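input
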Amino acid sequence: MFIRNLGKNERTLLAICITLATVAILYSLIIEPVLRRWKTLNAQLVSKIVQLNKNTKLLNMYQSLEEEYAKYHGVIEISKNEEEEQAKALREIENVSKKSACHIVNIRPRASRKLGNYKEILFEITTGGSLDELSRFLYEIEASTEHLRVRQFTITSRLSSSHRLKGIFLIGKIILG
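output
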């Protein structure tokens, strides 16, 4: 009824408006959510493909990783007793000082620190020697088989002798457990 009263141009314009409104409603209710979901799924698919590529590379490197793990498995053991680990570390420090001809004046154990799944035991070592001996001591500690690390060091000259130096080293060892 209402449409019959409209002219030809008005009916065409009304049909265009109804078509545009229908398309807008369909777009906002159906097409846009589907496109948004498709983009989300596509992004998830891309991230899964990247993860799959990384895992494939790791799987291809499995044999070399197993060999590398086997090398360190015998060296790093879960510590049963902290005192045993301290004794091993002190023995290694003494061996290194003998090898580097560095004279140990004092050794003071510090309190161990719990760091997540592992502990760090610390020692404060006071030494005496020439610059060459102290640098050799520092190098040998870092290269030790007990995985000792120098956390901090101070080197000063002694008042009585200019070529003899005093070194204070804070040495740590990481133990699991």
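quick obs: The helical segments are 8-60, 62-73, 82-99, 131-142.
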